[in-house]
Design goal:
Layout lengths: L4 H32 L2 H8 L1 H4 L10 H11 L4 E6 L8 E6 L9 E5 L6 E4 L4 H11 L5 H21 L3 H4 L9 H15 L1 H29 L2 H5 L14 H11 L3 E9 L7 E8 L7 E6 L5 E5 L6 H14 L4 H42 L7
Antiparallel strand pairs: 1-2, 1-5, 2-3, 3-4, 5-6, 6-7, 7-8
Helix pairs in contact: 1-5, 1-6, 1-13, 2-5, 6-9, 8-13, 9-12
């Protein structure tokens, strides 16, 4: 059944105002998202001394890395250790020195061959870009998730409004007015990148909003917050720690195929110490595998294997790789970058089209007002 002109007009208004209201934020998020696919490469470029460090397979033991950090920063808290990967040849660690606030951490680089501390990282440009894309620096993540939903609305309304999709794939009238040229570019860019835009919008909406719905569900299902507040963590006494390498092997037994990217340490040196191994799965796209290990006893706690944790857990594990394109090497990153720039262009071109249309209507109104009443049509 063909869509009525009245419905098309309403959808056009919804499409226009959704783009105008969110245009600036949409441009920032889309532009930073296109660039942030090269996060690791940008960090290496911003720290050229790190690019020259040797790559060793296998890298130095995690226990050696931790010992080197504790020797260089006595009394400091080692919060996370990032393992070398296909782009970064070095270990990285986040260290919070004694007396420093929880938000003040130092990122430290370490050699992969010996585990020796190289020193603090000079620039974290790639991480800043990721923070801009995911959180707009200081905002909650659901704002970016809402922009993903808005992008889906823009896609859906755009498809209905521009029904002659195949014809508009190759329509570009360069000799016409500015608004016509921009409109043709806007439509063709949107159509050529349609599949990618749906993927990015859907995964971005999921990553931004799913945690919000999950927290709401847990709040409702767990009852009043006083009930959870009543559960106090057990008293932590000093205790000897298991080796990080032993804990990692146990984590890989709990979740076969785990390839840890990060190790998070909590309450290290006490009977309540935990080491959490988070990363990908060998031969699988999911990137949310995780095992919490009791660092004093070596017992696994709460292993999360997206392959066996249920449908929604598997879907959630696929969202981040699909959104950031970090599973197919440098060629896929370039493809994500090029296609990722088109939503940023669409936000600019849509705003320019709308502004030009308003100016055109204003000029027509002024011309109509200058005509004597008796000569107006």
């Amino acid at each position: 059944m063909p869509t009525s002109q009245r419905t098309l007009n309403r959808l056009f208004v919804l499409h226009s105002w959704s783009g105008i209201v969110t245009g600036l934020l949409m441009f920032i998020v889309c532009f930073s998202g296109a660039v942030v696919v090269f996060k690791n490469e940008i960090d290496l470029w911003a720290n050229p001394s790190l690019a020259g460090l040797p790559r060793t397979e296998p890298p130095a033991p995690l226990a050696t890395v931790l010992a080197q950090l504790q020797a260089r920063y006595p009394g400091a808290t080692v919060e996370t250790i990032a393992l070398p990967d296909a782009t970064n040849p070095s270990y990285f660690a986040h260290v919070r020195e004694r007396g420093a606030p929880a938000s003040q951490r130092t990122k430290v680089a370490l050699r992969s061959d010996t585990g020796a501390v190289v020193g603090p990282v000079d620039s974290q440009l790639g991480q800043y870009l990721r923070m801009l894309h995911v959180f707009l620096f200081f905002g909650p993540r659901w704002i970016v998730g809402f922009l993903g939903v808005t992008m889906l609305v823009l896609i859906a309304t755009g498809i209905v409004i521009h029904r002659k999709i195949l014809a508009e794939l190759f329509t570009q009238r360069w000799g016409r007015s500015f608004r016509v040229v921009m409109s043709d570019l806007h439509k063709s860019a949107g159509i050529w990148g349609l599949g990618f835009h749906i993927l990015i919008a859907a995964t971005g909406a999921w990553l931004g909003l799913a945690p919000l719905f999950e927290q709401g569900y847990q709040y409702v299902s767990a009852g009043a917050p006083a009930a959870s507040a009543a559960r106090k963590p057990p008293a932590a006494e000093p205790a000897p720690m298991q080796s990080l390498d032993t804990l990692y092997r146990s984590a890989q037994q709990a979740v076969p195929g785990l390839e840890a990217r990060y190790v998070s340490l909590r309450r290290w040196g006490t009977s309540a110490a935990e080491a959490s191994f988070t990363g990908a799965l060998a031969g699988h796209l999911a990137s949310t595998a995780r095992v919490d290990m009791n660092a004093a006893t070596g017992a696994p706690k709460k292993p999360l294997d997206p392959r066996t944790a249920g449908f929604w857990s598997l879907v959630n594990g696929l969202m981040e790789p699909l959104h950031f394109g970090d599973f197919g090497g440098l060629a896929l990153k370039w493809l994500y970058f090029i296609l990722g720039m088109t939503p940023a262009f669409l936000s600019i071109s849509g705003t320019l089209i709308w502004l030009d249309s308003r100016q055109q209507r204003r000029r027509e109104s002024q011309q109509q007002a200058s005509v004597p009443p008796g000569l107006r049509s």
